[in-house]
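Sequence in, structure out.
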Amino acid sequence: ATAGGASGGYAEPYSDVVQLHIPQVTAYVEDLDDYLEKLYEEDMAVKVEATTYIAALAQRTETLESLLAHETVVLTLSRVLREDGRKSVDLATNILSVFFAFSNFSQFHQVILENQMGDMTMRIIDLEVKRAEDRSDAANKSKGRRPDESTQRRIDLAARKQDRLLYVCFYLLLNLSEDPSVERKMKKRNITVYLVKMLERRSVDLLVLCVTFLKKLSIYRENKDKMLECNIVDKLARFVPGQDVLLLVTLRLLLNLSFDPTLRQQMVERSMIPRVVELMKNPHFQHVSMALLYHISMDDTCKSMFTYTAAVPIILDFLLQVEDLHSAPELIALAVNLTQNQRNAEVLCETVAGAEQTRGFDLLVQRALRYQDPLAFKVIRNLSQQDVNIKLKFRPYVPDLIHLLKLEEAGSDLMVEVLGTLGNLCVPQFDMTELCMEHGLLGYMAALLDPGVVEDDVALEAIIFTGAVVNEANAHLVVEAGLVERIYNLMSEKKMDDEFVLQISYAFQRMLCCAATRDALLSSTQVVFYLVDLLQDKNKEVRKTADMGLDVVMDTDEEWAVKIRRMKFENHNQDWLELVDRDYGGSEGGHPRSGSGGGYPESGGDDSMDGDPNGMHSPGFNHLVLDTPQEYWGE
């Protein structure tokens, strides 16, 4: 059987090529010695005829053991190939067909390798590639003059014979490459380069085989890099779309290559996105085409390109049709990626579908609520992150979302997605204070943040929701629900988790903007010291958020403004101050950022520090730190 089993009806540019085949003759095992005897004749035609009969025997599985059991078959065939293989394409094809039949069974691979057939096959491939290049150069030198009909027939016949030989060579090597050590030897002999060159030929069977072989090799970085050097994407682009079997293996190879950012970019530059999008409509190519588009959509610069194709309407149609989205991971992954883009989200929301021509947004939300599908809510959550025009489309569904949130088991995937969606909808157009009071959302968030109640991902969403919803109108409700203390306590528990630290810092910044929550934080916690400490954090966003929170405190409380300026100064110049402290013989410890350990006091203590009415203690160098901050900060 040929690789891929391609048949007639091929599309251009390879529609005029006949299917590869081995000549069919009737051969008998009893005559094997006669066939071998003819291999010692001088006449090449006799040798070709003899090898044709031996190749016919090798096509029958029941005769393989007889061939291998014969004491001279393998040795004689390998000798003839080594001595006369260059002289006749037909002779080489017939002999390699015998070894190819052996290679279909792993237990015979050792016999093939012991007779150095792998090396001979690589030499024949190299020879045929050079012959093809010579013919191409000769055609180019003819300066466009078309050969006469007889000459053209000879050229076509030679090309077909060469395709047949190359097909057997590469298929033999493909079977042998199941041994990684043999594959490594092939790689050193530039098998990848030869395979890529074959992509310029027109035989469908040969193309299917070579693309399949390249797919196998592409899982290794060295081979992938060599394919990149050979401009493989340019050569593969002509097969998309194309003949079905060749198209399928091409898409699978492109999927393997798409893990490399450079190759992904080349696919985009070759206009692969609209062509592959159209293939999503064909059930034979849906999974692999969606997976390929998913990889391409990982690049933010490429997401907007999908807007100008039919990708979003097609995906919406699939989302509404598939009952269990867990059975379509490529679909949901691509949908999640694309809806992170504002324009794609708008297209999805405005696309009409169904007999009643309903907006895609309404159909998707209604489906998610009906099936309570967490994967569908991942897409809906992405939509809720977009601009206010899309957020306002959620207005009729907010009560249903809250009801689903409170009914769902705490910590489930669905609950996380619904809570994240609600956290994104905290905009002035929605009266979140009334919703929080009506549905007891703040108390529900406080319960989620009790120690050990939920997993970290749920607690993180609860913090994000609290930071988003808090405002001057509901700040007192946040304090009464105990959210200030719970979030503050989480800061020390999750101090090694960047995402927690960032979201808690943002929640603090939002709370410090509201009088009730600001008073609670400044009077009963050490939040200022934590925020000052975060100014030295490795994460840029954490530093930025902490600084914004401190700026809010400084703008609203002059006494704290003085303390914060001094703490910022000491924090920024810690090494210098410690050096001065040692030089002046000052005492050790006492400073919240001292290198000896210590750390900030836990919540509940007095915010002021020993001996300094402004709350600042700098042991050993009090006479150096100015009491008037404008002296070093400037007016």
